[in-house]
Design brief:
Elements (H helix, E strand, L loop, with lengths): L1 E3 L5 H9 L18 E4 L5 E4 L10 H17 L6 E6 L6 H13 L3 E6 L6 H17 L5 E5 L8 H13 L3
Parallel strand pairs: 1-4, 4-5, 5-6
Antiparallel strand pairs: 2-3
């Protein structure tokens, strides 16, 4: 499952990963993904685009309904192999990102963090952001997490992401 703040690049990452620029809808308006969107890889495996969080200009009742569905999906979906948590490299580890990392630690759910939009920073600044994020993740007891730099714009980190997902998705076979 792919989760992240609105405008962190969830849909762009899925499109880059699959090589299909029209698979997950991308909009300049935040919070266009409002449902759990399932994308079949084959008969047995799927990617899931979860609703973005953070910028929703919707009634509180709608936000609460999204939260309920997200909680149910993450807690009860037995086929879920891991959570890809996307964070804009310029604004990593926002409060809800930390909430998801804490949930993953408690639930023993593997997490792979994509620091998206890595092309927006210099190489050194990107590496610094990555190291700071890894330091926070290491401090969380029980968290099984990895992190990497990623850019949908120029494909940076795409091979690493594919390898990581293959490890998760092939673990059952």
């Amino acid at each position: 499952a792919f989760a992240g703040r609105s405008k962190a690049g969830n849909s762009s990452a899925i499109n880059t990963l699959t090589g299909n620029s029209k698979l997950a809808r991308i909009s300049k308006t935040p919070v266009r993904t409002q449902l759990l969107n399932f994308f079949s890889i084959d008969e047995q495996r799927r990617l899931v685009d979860l609703p973005g969080y953070g910028f929703a200009k919707v009634p509180l009742a709608v936000k609460n309904e999204w939260q309920k569905h997200l909680d149910e999906y993450l807690s009860e979906r037995q086929s879920l192999r891991g959570l890809v948590l996307l964070m804009d490299i310029r604004h990593p580890l926002q409060p809800f990102d930390t909430v998801l990392l804490d949930w993953a630690a408690r639930s023993a759910m593997p997490v792979h963090v994509l620091l998206t939009k890595a092309d927006k920073l210099t190489y050194g600044a990107g590496k610094t952001a990555l190291l700071q994020t890894q330091k926070v993740m290491i401090a969380k007891k029980g968290l099984q997490a990895t992190a990497q730099l990623f850019s949908s714009h120029n494909g940076q980190g795409l091979d690493d992401l594919r390898q990581h997902l293959d490890n998760w998705l092939l673990a059952e076979e």
